[in-house]
Amino acid sequence: MDAIDDKILRVLQHEGRISNLNLAERVGLSPSACLRRVQELERSGVITGYRAVTDRARLGAGFAAYVGVGLSDHSKHSQAVFERAMARADEVRECHNITGTIEYLLRVECAGLAAYKTFHTEVLGTVPGVTSITSYVVMGSPKNERG
User: CATH assignment of 63-137?
Assistant: First the structure.
């Protein structure tokens, strides 16, 4: 990794569909050298994929909340059970194992408050070992660079 790779990554994070020719111009490389660098970043696992950024509200998932979840048991097994349940839940867009007073931080997106209540009760409320659920409803996102 060097300064040129950093430039390539910054551009691709904001414009993932940029052509190789335009990318090369933006970072000051020939198209062939730029393509080699991008391919190496992909091969080495620095770039793990490309995705479309969607307007969740237009897709019927305009309600978003961050949810802190505490578990009663801190074993590998309990964490695996919880993580499998979250992997199956379509409403869970992100699941992070964190440090602090709780074990997990989720980003949940669904159609509205009624759908969130169903998720809260029918999904989170049924996972063994969940002892605390704290919801933080997103009211706006003045900065959102999530891919």
Answer: 3.30.70.920
Q: What is the pLDDT of residue 59?
A: 84
Statement: 3-43 belongs to CATH 1.10.10.10? yes
* Domain extents in the chain: 3-43, 63-137
Query: How far, in Å, CA of 95 to CA of 107, rounded?
Result: 7
Rounded Cα gap, residues 140 and 71, in angstroms:
29
Q: Convert the pLDDT of each residue in 69-112 to its tens digit.
A: 999 998 999 999 999 999 999 999 999 999 999 999 999 999 99
Q: How confident is the model at residue 51 (pLDDT cuts 50, 70, 90)?
A: confident
Residue-wise DSSP of 8-30: HHHHHHH-TT--HHHHHHHHT--
- Long-range contacts from 87-91, C-beta under 8 angstroms, 24+ separation: 89/119, 89/123, 91/61, 91/115, 91/116, 91/119, 91/123
